[in-house]
Amino acid sequence: EAGVTQSPTHLIKTRGQQATLRCSPISGHTSVYWYQQALGLGLQFLLWYDEGEERNRGNFPPRFSGRQFPNYSSELNVNALELEDSALYLCASKITLRGEQPQHFGDGTRLSIL
Amino acid sequence: GNSVTQMEGPVTLSEEAFLTINCTYTATGYPSLFWYVQYPGEGLQLLLKATKADDKGSNKGFEATYRKETTSFHLEKGSVQVSDSAVYFCALWNTNAGKSTFGDGTTLTVKP
User: Fold this and answer.
1) In this complex, do A105 and B44 lie within 8 Å of one another by their Cβ atoms?
2) A56 with A48: CB under 8 angstroms?
C-alpha cells in the first residue's frame, strides 16, 4: 500500500512569491491534514480537509490556504511568502471524519524562502 | 486551549541505557495521546497511543501510560539502541475540535 505522498520534496522561493505544495493521501483516506514544522517551533496544525471541505484551521494568517480535490488529494497554497515561512510542511491522512489523530504522515516538503 | 509540553532536548544516551522523555498536557475534555517518531530525513511515524486514562501504549520496546491525575504521558524504554536516534513528538488529539496539538519534539541521540 502506498503511503502518503508529498511533492515537491524541496521548494525554494523568494519573499513575496507564492508556493503550492501537494499531498496525496493513502488510498481510501478522505481526510487530509497539513502541519508546519518550523525550526525551534515544533509541529503546528495548519489545516484539515475532509470530503472536499475545510473542517478546521490552526492559528495561521489567511495567506495560508488550500483545497481538497474530488480524489481527496490536497494542495496547500502559501501567498506572499515571508522568511519565517521556511519550514517542513507535513501532510497526514486518515480514513474517517471522526475518530483518532491521523496516523499516516508523508515525508514532507521542505520550503526554503530566500 | 490545549497544550503539550515536552522535556527539552537534546538527550544523549549510551546504548542500552534507560530512556525517559517527559510529556505533560493541558486539554479540555478527554483527549487521546500519542507519541510520534521522526527519523532523519523522514516524516512522522506513529509510535504508540493511548485513548483513555490508565491505558498503556507500547511498541518496539517503548511504553507510555496515560496518567490523568498528573496529566502526563511519559515515554520510556528500558534499553535504547543506536537505531532509536530520532526526534520524538508527544501529541494530543481533541476529537471534538478535530485538531492536533504537538509538543516541540525531543531529539534523542544514542551513542554506541
Assistant:
1) yes
2) yes
B73 touches B23 (CB < 8 A): yes
Distance (Å, whole) CA A91 – CA A34: 5
Signed CA dihedral, B21, B37, B2, B56: sign only: negative
Q: Indicate the residue of A58, A101, A105 with minimum beta-carbon distance to B43.
A: A105
Model confidence pLDDT, tens digit, residues B48-103: 999 999 999 999 999 999 999 999 999 999 999 999 999 999 999 877 666 788 89
> Where in chain B does DSSP place strands (E)?
3-6, 11-14, 19-21, 23-26, 32-38, 44-50, 56-59, 62-65, 75-77, 86-94, 99-102, 106-111
* Rounded Cα–Cα distance for residues B33 and B74 (Å): 10
Chains A & B: contacts with CB separation below 8 Å: 59
- Residue A90 is placed in which grid cell? 507535513
Tell me the C-alpha distance between B48 and B3, whole Å: 19
Chosen for mutation from A7, A101, A109, A110 (greatest number of chain B CBs closer than 10 Å) is A101
